[in-house]
Write a structure and sequence with these properties.
With 88 residues, this protein is α+β, with helices and mostly antiparallel strands. It contains 2 helices and 4 strands; from the N terminus they run H-H-E-E-E-E. It has helices at residues 2-19, 27-40; strands at residues 46-54, 57-64, 70-76, 81-86. The chain has a 4-stranded antiparallel beta sheet with strand order 1-2-3-4, with helices on one face. Strand 2 and strand 3 (70-76) form a beta hairpin. The protein starts with a helix and ends with a strand. The mean pLDDT is 82.
């Protein structure tokens, strides 16, 4: 009986952990998602396409889920948004 008391909670916790796979965006991605949402104005949720390092900042490319449009977001070294535009 003691094994059963230990096994059931362990199995339950393992199943719960498998169901709750939460991915938190890095700060630069979260900043760009907010900027793209405001610029797009479609109400879609931007999804990460790429996150690349630049010499003096970051280039984050996101795709708007409502339209499928790709957006480039350029951040400076401090993490401030410098530019948001449609990717070519």
């Amino acid at each position: 009986m003691p094994f059963f008391r230990l096994a059931v909670p362990a199995v339950f916790l393992a199943a719960l952990a498998a169901c709750t796979d939460v991915v938190i965006d890095p700060p630069e991605v979260a900043t760009c998602k907010a900027a793209v949402s405001a610029a797009a104005g479609t109400g879609g949720t931007p999804a990460l396409v790429s996150n690349e390092s630049l010499i003096d900042g970051r280039l984050v490319t996101l795709q708007d889920s409502a339209t499928g449009t790709n957006w480039n977001c350029i951040l400076d070294a401090s993490g401030a948004v410098e530019q948001v535009d449609i990717a070519s």
